[in-house]
Design brief:
This protein is of the alpha/beta class. It has two domains: about 170 residues, Rossmann fold (3-Layer(aba) Sandwich), CATH 3.40.50.720; about 290 residues, Dihydrodipicolinate Reductase, domain 2, CATH 3.30.360. The protein is about 35% helix and about 20% strand. It is built from 14 helices and 16 strands. Strands 8-10-11-7-12-13-14-15 form an eight-stranded mixed beta sheet, sandwiched between helices. A six-stranded parallel beta sheet has the order 3-2-1-4-5-6, sandwiched between helices. The protein has a two-stranded parallel sheet with strand order 9-16. The N and C termini lie far apart (about 55 Å).
């Protein structure tokens, strides 16, 4: 992989918004201090906020200092940052932005490498893209790419419409659909471990795996995201994108190479092998929940959160059993779960291994990939107890904490921005993948509309979630792998 420093220009639409503040500016600063960005690189913030350049640079600095991986601020980074007042509804603002870009490129002698980050609401994609094209900005000599943030649409139909809008101005290969979970170093570890170790890939199938569990429980409530969250819920905020991307990475056949074209080919095949849900399947194999206040009063009822409807039926918990109908996984259930205000807080993938029927272990043997907060690969296996009998002793192996504690682990947005600027697409879902993800999610949401309204709330905050989620796996003789214990009374 080329290690040449990146030169070019990045325009951030929605430059005064939450996404830019929390993720984009910290990631760009870290790329700069890690010598990934050249001195001949420029960042233009574009938003309606009436910032002066100094005010914008102060805003960027404050964002960086609160961001991940921050140790010390490099003031030279601010020389890369300028600001332009841009209203997506005003064509004249894009004419001015084009002039600014030409001036910056000429003054700093930048490479003709342009990246536009849509850190804006999807309802602004049309005007933003239209004005980008009409202004002639995309006719400036060079390569023009765009990043759009998840969730991409509200359903399959809207996703297709947004894609059509972007295709008016950008080639498909220059549209980067952003989902930060595939860009997590320890999500990439799933594919890398299989690719590096043939012995691991040899057991990566129905002959050795009893079930797969993708668990993304969160201890945080929705906090101040009520307006957004009440429109989406857990199924669209986490399942349609993050979980299904992780499922594709786990379920796909091993690609011929780690290049984008081969990886995306196998991910798409895996997603296509997941069937639509019908009403009966949703009733039997999907659990949704909504939290209520815990007994200590630390958490509110979801319906009492700010900007949430008092009779909301939005799901804050989601669990499901999916079948991957491929030769590799036929008959192996894929269990997924996620939720807010839970007693657990981790992102983990477990491949529960088949045991001999005559061996009794304390816990399920498994191969585990921990993404956050613990990181790395571990095994739970049985070996012999130190007695003169063949009795099983459950033993834990890994992860390699020593190496990971000393290594610099980039934030996912560092990986995403670096790859997008270089034109490397392996971390970004393709639109065909997104269409399959919406197909699966839409089939669940559409079935919910035909079923009776849920009896919410149905789980207390600081619990493992709804009781129905236990039955979901128990009906197949399985158990969830939990990583926390309920507090004692």
């Amino acid at each position: 992989m080329e290690n040449k420093q990146i030169s070019g220009l990045m325009v951030i639409f929605g430059a005064s918004g939450d996404l830019a503040e929390r993720f984009i500016y910290p990631a760009l600063h870290q790329l700069y201090v890690r010598d990934k960005l050249a001195e001949k690189f420029a960042i233009i913030g574009a938003a309606r906020s009436n910032f002066s350049e100094k005010e914008f640079q102060d805003y960027v600095k404050q964002a960086v200092e609160k961001g991940p991986n921050f140790t010390e601020f490099d003031d030279v980074f601010l020389k890369l940052c300028s600001y332009e007042v841009v209203d997506s509804m005003q064509a004249a603002d894009f004419e001015t932005l084009k002039e600014t870009i030409n001036e910056v490129v000429k003054e700093k002698q930048l490479d003709n490498n342009f990246l536009y980050f849509y850190s804006i609401s999807p309802n602004l994609y049309d005007e933003t893209t239209t004005h980008l094209k009409a202004s002639g900005m995309l006719e400036i000599e060079g390569n023009h790419k765009v990043i759009v943030e998840k969730p991409f649409g509200e359903n399959l139909a809207s996703a297709k419409e947004y894609n059509k809008l972007l295709l008016k101005a950008f080639e498909e290969e220059n549209i980067y659909y952003n989902d930060h979970f595939p860009a997590m170093d320890f999500a990439q570890n799933i594919l890398a471990t299989r690719y590096f170790n043939p012995i691991i890939d040899a057991i990566w199938n129905k002959n050795f795996v009893e079930n797969v569990q993708i668990s993304l429980p969160e201890s945080l409530s929705i906090e101040d995201r009520g307006g957004f969250y009440d429109d989406y819920g857990a199924v669209l905020d986490m399942f349609q994108n993050h979980i299904l991307q992780l499922l594709a990475i786990v379920a796909m056949d091993l690609p011929k190479s780690l290049e984008a074209v081969d990886v995306h080919k196998e991910k798409l095949k895996a997603l296509k092998s997941v069937a639509d849900f019908d009403k009966k399947m949703v009733k039997d194999k999907v659990v949704r929940g909504q939290y209520q206040a815990d007994q200590s009063g630390e958490y509110h009822n979801y319906r009492d959160e700010e900007d949430v409807s008092t009779d909301s039926n939005t799901d804050t918990y989601f669990a499901a059993e999916l079948a991957v109908n491929s030769d590799r996984w036929q008959g192996v259930p894929f269990y997924v779960r996620t939720g807010k205000a839970l007693v657990e807080n981790h992102f983990t993938i477990d491949l529960v291994l088949k045991n001999r029927g005559d061996v009794e272990g304390n816990v399920a043997n498994r191969l585990t990939f921990e993404l956050e907060p613990k990181r790395g690969l571990s095994f739970v296996l049985d070996q012999k107890q130190a007695t003169n009998e063949f009795a099983a002793l459950t033993s834990f192996f890994g992860p390699d904490d020593k190496n990971y504690q000393t290594a610099y682990i980039p934030d996912p947005y560092e990986n995403l921005l670096e790859d997008a600027l270089k034109g490397e697409a392996v971390l970004f879902p393709t639109f065909p993948e997104i269409k399959e993800q919406w197909r699966i999610a839409d089939s669940i949401v559409n079935a919910w509309q035909e079923l009776p309204e849920p009896d919410f709330p149905n789980y207390r905050a600081k619990s493992f979630g709804p009781a129905e989620a236990e039955q979901l796996v128990k009906q197949n003789g399985h158990e969830w792998i939990y990583r926390s214990e309920l507090p004692t009374a």
